[in-house]
Specification:
With 458 residues, the protein is α/β, with parallel strands linked by helices. It folds into three domains: 28-120, Beta Barrel (Lipocalin), CATH 2.40.128; 138-283 and 364-453, Alpha/Beta hydrolase fold, catalytic domain (Rossmann fold); 286-359. Helices cover 29% and strands 28% of the residues. The chain has eleven helices and 16 strands. The protein has helices spanning 190-199, 225-240, 258-268, 285-299, 304-323, 327-335, 342-352, 355-362, 366-371, 389-403, 440-453; strands spanning 28-36, 39-49, 55-61, 66-77, 80-85, 90-96, 102-108, 112-120, 138-147, 152-161, 167-173, 204-208, 245-255, 275-278, 376-381, 408-413. Strands 1-2-3-4-5-6-7-8 form an eight-stranded antiparallel barrel. It has an eight-stranded mixed beta sheet with strand order 9-10-12-11-13-14-15-16, with helices on both faces. The chain is globular.
Length: 458
C-alpha cells in the first residue's frame, strides 16, 4: 500500500561484491546502521582494490530490500574514507581507526547522520526460512493471461495439486505498487509462500506479474485499480477454461489494494466462488492514507506538530485532486504547495499526481462490498499501520451486513503487521528485519477457511 507522507526518507540502494584485496586497509566488508528516529537502516559496504590500485565499492541496504548499485568516488587518504551514491544523492566521509576495524563518520543525504562501519568477514544476507524449496509435490507451469480489453498479456505461474481434479483454485491479486507474481518485498515472497502452502493442501493457485512488470506487457504507470481489476478478471477467465480446474470453485485472494479489487470483481461477477481480503480497504483511499501517515509518523516518534502539518498537507493535496479533472493542472497546483524545497515539491507531485491516485483516493469500496454474495473472509493484522484494522474491518463488516451477506468472517490477528508477519511496532521498516514471511497463524487461518469453503474439508 502506497504511503503519502513527507516523513524523512533515507533512500539507499546497494550491490554486493566479495573479492577482497589486502593492499588497502580500507578493503573488505563493512557493516553499520543509520538511525532516523525510530527507524534503523542497516548498511553494508564492500570495498575492493582494482588492478590499477584505485578503490571501488558497493553498498547494501537490506532493510529496504536494496541490492545492486555501485558507489563512486571511493578513496582513502590520510586515514579518511570517502564514497558517494549518486542516484540517491548521498555521500559518506569517515575516519579509519588505527586497528583498521572501524570507520566512524557521517552519511549525508539531505541531512547529516552518523554512520559507524565495522569490519566483518562478509556481509550478512536476510534469512527467509519459509521460502519454498524444490522438489515440489505439485505441478507448476507457465500461463499467459490475455486481457483483450486492456490489450495486455500477463505472465503467470499456475501451481496444480497432485491428483486428477478438477481442483478448486484461487487467484492471487497483489497490493499497490509494481509487483511481481510473488509480491516480492524486502527479500520476502509472500505469494510464493502462500501458493506453495495452498497447493500442497489441494488448491490450485494462479499468480502473475502486474502489467508492465517482468514479461507482462502494458503500462503500469498509467493504470488504475479498475485496470488491475480487468487483469484479475482475465486471470479468472483463463483459469475457468482449464479442464483440471473446477470453474465453480474459483475465488480471489487480494492483499492490500488487491483486497479492494477482489470484492469489486465479485460484486460484478457472481461466478466468483469466494473472496479473501488480506489487509483490504473498507473506506476510501483518502481516509486510509490520512490515517496511515499519522500512524506511521506517530510510531516513528514524530512530534504532534509534524503529524498535524503533514495531515494538513495531505488534505490540500486531496482537495486539489478532487477539484481538478486535468492531471496537468493538478500537478501545477500541487507543485505550488510550499513543501520546504524544490526537490520536496517535485517529489510530492511524483507521489500524488497520477491516474492511479486520482481513482484510488476517492473510490469507496462499501457499495461493491454490499453487493458481494459469495463467502468472504476479511483478515488483517492488529499492528497493520498501512491499512489500519480499527478503521477498515468494521467498515467492511458493516457493508457486508448492509448487503445481507451472512456468510462472512472478519478476523483480526494479534501481533501481526500489514504483511501478516509477527511484529513489534508494525512499522514498514520492520518488514525486512523480520525473518518470517507470513505468520503460521495467518497461513492456518486462511487455509482452514478456504478448505471449508471449497469443500475439501467438511
Amino acid at each position: 500500500m502506497r504511503t503519502l507522507a513527507l516523513a524523512l526518507q533515507v533512500l539507499l540502494f546497494a550491490t554486493a561484491g566479495f573479492a577482497q584485496q589486502p593492499a588497502s586497509p580500507a578493503a573488505g566488508s563493512w557493516e553499520g546502521a543509520i538511525e532516523t528516529g525510530a527507524v534503523k537502516l542497516r548498511i553494508g559496504v564492500v570495498i575492493t582494490v582494482q588492478p590499477d590500485g584505485t578503490l571501488s565499492a558497493a553498498m547494501d541496504s537490506p532493510d529496504q530490500g536494496a541490492y545492486g548499485l555501485a558507489l563512486s568516488n571511493v578513496s582513502l587518504a590520510d586515514g579518511v574514507v570517502k564514497f558517494a551514491l549518486p542516484r540517491a544523492n548521498g555521500t559518506f566521509e569517515g575516519r579509519l581507526n588505527a586497528a583498521g576495524t572501524e570507520i566512524a563518520g557521517t552519511w549525508t543525504q539531505g541531512m547529516p547522520l552518523p554512520l559507524v562501519l565495522k569490519k566483518v568477514e562478509k556481509l550478512s544476507r536476510p534469512n527467509r526460512p519459509q521460502e519454498p524449496k524444490p522438489p515440489f509435490p505439485y505441478r507448476s507451469e507457465h500461463v499467459a493471461i490475455v486481457n483483450g480489453t486492456g490489450q495486455v498479456v500477463l505472465d503467470g505461474t499456475l501451481t496444480v495439486p497432485e491428483g486428477k481434479g478438477p481442483h478448486p483454485a484461487v487467484i492471487l491479486i497483489t497490493g499497490s505498487g509494481a509487483q511481481n507474481r510473488d509480491e516480492e518485498i524486502f527479500g520476502h515472497k509472500p505469494f510464493f509462500v502462500l501458493a506453495d502452502h495452498l497447493t500442497r493442501r489441494g488448491i490450485a493457485v494462479l499468480r502473475y506479474d502486474d502489467r508492465g512488470v517482468g514479461k507482462s506487457t502494458g503500462s503500469f504507470a498509467t493504470a488504475t485499480s479498475e485496470d488491475f481489476a480487468g487483469d484479475a478478471w482475465a486471470a479468472w477467465q483463463t483459469l475457468s477454461a482449464r479442464p483440471e480446474i473446477d470453474r465453480k470453485r474459483i475465488g480471489l485472494l487480494g492483499h492490500s489494494e488487491g483486497g479492494l479489487i477482489a470484492p469489486m470483481l465479485a460484486a460484478a461477477h457472481p461466478e466468483v466462488a469466494f473472496v479473501i481480503m488480506v489487509a483490504g480497504p473498507g473506506v476510501t483511499g483518502e481516509q486510509i492514507m490520512l490515517a496511515q501517515a499519522s500512524a506511521i509518523m506517530k510510531a516513528s516518534g514524530a512530534p504532534d506538530a509534524a503529524i498535524t502539518a503533514n495531515t494538513d498537507l495531505q488534505k490540500q493535496v486531496f482537495a486539489i485532486l478532487r477539484e481538478e479533472t486535468s492531471i496537468a493542472r493538478a500537478a501545477e497546483r500541487i507543485g505550488a504547495i510550499p513543501a520546504g524545497s524544490k526537490e520536496a515539491s517535485a517529489a510530492l507531485v511524483r507521489q500524488t499526481v497520477s491516474p492511479w491516485m486520482k481513482f484510488f483516493a476517492f473510490y469507496d469500496p462499501a457499495p461493491a462490498l454490499a453487493k458481494v454474495r459469495c463467502p468472504i473472509l476479511a483478515i488483517a493484522g492488529e499492528l497493520d499501520l498501512q491499512v489500519l484494522p480499527a478503521q477498515n474491518l468494521p467498515a467492511i463488516g458493516a457493508a457486508l451486513v448492509k448487503g445481507g451477506n451472512q456468510n462472512h468472517t472478519i478476523l483480526e490477528l494479534p501481533g501481526l503487521n500489514h504483511l501478516l508477519q509477527p511484529a513489534k511496532t508494525g512499522l514498514p521498516a520492520e518488514y525486512a528485519q523480520v525473518e518470517t514471511t507470513i505468520a503460521p497463524a495467518a497461513l492456518d487461518a486462511i487455509t482452514s477457511w478456504l478448505l471449508k469453503r471449497t469443500g475439501l474439508v467438511k
